[in-house]
Amino acid sequence: MNVTAIGRFYDRFAGVYDHLFDHVFREGRAEAIRALELAPGSRVLEVGVGTGLTLPLYPAGTEIVGIDISQPMLREARERADRENGGKRVGLVRMDAARLAFPDDTFDGVYAPYVVSVVPYPRRVVEEMARVCRPGGKVVIVNHFGSRNRLGAFLEKRLTPLTHFVGFRLDLPVEAILGIPGLELEENRRVNMLKLWRLLVFRKTTVEGAGVGETAVAGATRIA
After folding, report:
1. Looking at the domain 3-217, which fold is it?
2. How far, in Å, CA of 166 to CA of 46, rounded?
3. C-alpha torsion sign, points 109, 176, 171, 12
4. Under 8 Å between Cβ of 178 and 185
5. Could you tell me the sign of the dihedral formed by the alpha carbons of 138, 139, 142, 147, in that order?
6. Theoretical Cys-Cys bridge with 171: which of 155, 156, 162, 210, CB 3.0 to 4.6 Å?
7. How many CB atoms lie within 10 A of CB 142?
């Protein structure tokens, strides 16, 4: 997988994405927003905002920055934000999740819905999420991870070369994103239909060193 190919795939499916993935993943989105424990005035980053399906779920008074690699998806998100604002400030930016264009400790919470298995470097993405989250804030991930059942793992391994063509991998082990310095895992449980996805809730416990983000600002395209 590469960023360009992933972006092109989601560019093509932006118009029908909601019909395919709204209801199926809705429970996980709602659980993730609750896990973030956002207070009025909180600033949150959503990595892989897509068409903005989560935007209506954020509490009033929050400031949301949503990033995505697909410009058509962001246009859909902008329309939803304007239509279903609910007293929130929403900014949308085209950006590579592996090179976040924000300084360290910028956000009170960072959330990635169904993203880490569709990026080329999942651990790097989570490291960047940790970097831009303030100490004490939450990093929340909802995603499918590789099965620990022998039969399930075998089937996922065999199917993953096919799923690469539609922009994701089935066999990503959860261990690939665990053990990142400064992130303490507080919750790990199953969500959504058939409980095939996991909700991971981390707390940022330490101040990370400076990352690549501040040098990447020139490469970000603001939508609104």
Report:
1. Rossmann fold (3.40.50)
2. 22
3. positive
4. yes
5. negative
6. 156
7. 25
> At how many degrees (to 10) do helices 17-36 and 3-13 cross?
110
Query: What count of Cα atoms within 13 Å lies in the side-chain half-sphere of residue 217?
Result: 4
**41 neighbors 61 (Cβ within 8 angstroms):** yes
- The DSSP string of the chain is --HHHHHHHHHHHTTTHHHHHHHHHHHHHHHHHHHHTPPTT-EEEEET-TT-TTGGGSPTT-EEEEEES-HHHHHHHHHHHHHS-SS-EEEEEE--TTS--S-TT-EEEEEEES-TTSSS-HHHHHHHHHHHEEEEEEEEEEE----SSHHHHHHHHHHHHHHGGGT--S---GGGG---TTEEEEEEEEESGGG-EEEEEEEE-SPPPP-SGGG-GGG-EE--
Strand partners, 50: none
